[in-house]
Amino acid sequence: MTDTIIALATPVGESALAVIRISGQISLTIAKQACNCINPNPRNAYLVNYRTSDGEILDQVVITFFNNGNSYTGEDSLEISCHGNPLITEMICKDLINRECRIAQPGEFTRQAFLNGKIDLPQAESVAQIIAAKNEQSLALAQRNLKGKLSDKLLSIQQNILNLQASIEAHIDFPEDDLDENDQEGIHQNVKKIVKELEALLLQAKRTKLLTKNIKVVLTGLPNVGKSSLFNALAGKNRALIHSESGTTRDYLEFDIKIGKYWITLVDTAGIHDAAEEIELAGIEMSLEQAKEADLFLWVIDNSVPHPIELPGEYTKLIRSKPTLLIRNKSDLGEYNWVPDYNPPPKATNISSTGKRGLKQLEALLLEIIQNITGEGSENEYLVGVRHEVLIKNCLNELTSFLLESKNGVGDEIVSIHLTEARKELDIMIGRKTNEDMLDILFGEFCIGK
Ligand SMILES: Nc1nc2c(ncn2[C@@H]2O[C@H](COP(=O)(O)OP(=O)(O)OP(=O)(O)O)[C@@H](O)[C@H]2O)c(=O)[nH]1
Ligand SMILES: [Mg+2]
Predict the structure, then answer these.
(1) Which residue minimizes the CA distance to atom 26 of ligand 1?
(2) Where are the domains of the chain?
(3) pTM, rounded to two decimals
């Protein structure tokens, strides 16, 4: 007999209700023996008393039975909604263990659903993505993945590769009917089309990284330009210490704010300069660490001085490599409107942190940059996780090798192997080829009860 697994599907703590999930062969027996519900109609709710094996009533609960063909996991399942008191859920779980159930591993319900063919691997992954979504956009995309949209896309790419391979291999079997130049060119064009589709998915993988967490926005710049003042103005409270003396901020400070649909983590850092003091140097070292992890910079300068001193080269490189908004602060004292001499210069805006001037415009520009890097409103259609990103890159490598070798006259029989390998990578993405270790890692990231 296979194991029957149980888990508390709701957070631990006091709440109106708590849900205990059961999946496996003895689900129906539990409905009968613990809840006196002899022949529950699947998907109907029953108000019953939950009794231990000794007949003690633990709680009045609502149970719903799902028969194996129509359950989430593909096995007989039972959901028990009890009062949301941790004492009650603990007693019911203990009684279920006495009745030969065991506590589920993280993600085990979804793993069962996958193993029983209820969903494929991208759909299983989307379940965790739905739970972890940090904004409406990633939620909507995760829900599309759950409907199978990413799987459909991967399957269509795989089918296209298979069709191409079939036309190549038809000629391998009948060498007298060789592929002519036109056939070759047609195949190359089609492979290039597939390469484009995979590259578009890679771009979405990059965007997915931003969508599935808070976007890290780091305030950077020279000392005393007003970084902490701006941090406080955006946070709407006095979190950071502000002083006319330069070198005030030592540790970095974080605060979460919402801009448009997006949660961002604002990070205030120590001003960068050639500090002499050891403690200040340590703070500047921290600033650099934060800058390396930034998704976006708010580069603050003092607009009331004619020409701001350039940042150290390392920072300039970082700023140029990531989306940046140049903030010309202290514009109440003067407007020199310096522009960095590289092309294209970053978007810039004039503000006064202390005078609360230009902040709305700053937020609008920040949102514009975020929408641009997350691809909001564009062709961004899927969440593409890190696992897929690696496999897409492998797949692209195979197709690139195919094109290169085929153009260099390597025989069809040999180059066709690259197409087989590309299809294998897609098999792993979809979950047609798996192994226990991979599934352990993948589902190990889920919460218990999902
Ligand atoms: N007039 C004016 N003064 C400002 C403005 N923003 C900040 N200041 C002043 O500039 C000084 C430095 O401000 P901070 O916010 O501490 O500057 P910082 O960049 O965080 O400085 P460090 O932590 O030393 O790197 C303070 O005296 C602020 O009151 C502004 O927009 N206008
Ligand atoms: Mg500061």
Answers:
(1) 244
(2) 4-119, 124-209+383-430, 215-374
(3) 0.78
Distance CA 432, CA 54 (A): 46
Residue nearest to atom 6 of ligand 1 (CA): 226
Query: CA-CA distance, 429 to 142, in Å (whole number)?
Result: 16
pLDDT in tens, 176-235: 666 676 688 899 999 999 999 999 999 999 989 888 889 999 999 999 999 999 999 999
Topology at the third CATH level for domain 124-209+383-430: Four Helix Bundle (Hemerythrin (Met), subunit A) (1.20.120)
Residue 157 pLDDT greater than 80, yes or no? yes
Residues lining ligand 2 (ion), CB within 5 A? Answer: 227-228, 248-249
Give kind and range of the element (H or E) at residue 91: helix 86-98
342 CA distance to ligand 1 middle (Å): 26
Query: Are 23 and 5 contacting, i.e. CB atoms less than 8 angstroms apart?
Result: yes
Q: Do the domains 4-119 and 215-374 sit in the same CATH topology, yes or no?
A: no
**Residue carrying structure tokens 């800058």:** 291
CATH code reported for the domain at 4-119: 3.30.1360.120
Instruction: Tell whether ligand 1 has an atom less than 6 A from the beta carbon of residue 328.
Output: no
Q: How far is CA 404 from CA 191, 252, 393, 397, 409, in A?
A: 11, 49, 16, 11, 9
Mean pLDDT of 104-129: 95
* CA–CA dist 259, 368 (Å, integer): 10
Nearest to 415 by CA among 425, 405, 400, 423: 405
Mutate to test the pocket of ligand 1, among 305, 328, 353 (most ligand atoms within 8 A of CB): 353
Q: How far is the CA of 228 from the centre of ligand 1 (A)?
A: 7
Query: ∠ CA(437), CA(112), CA(392), 5° rounding?
Result: 50
Q: How confident is the model at residue 280 (pLDDT cuts 50, 70, 90)?
A: confident
Which CATH number does 215-374 carry? 3.40.50.300
The side-by-side arrangement of strands in the sheet containing 324-329 is 253-259, 262-268, 215-221, 296-302, 324-329, 347-350
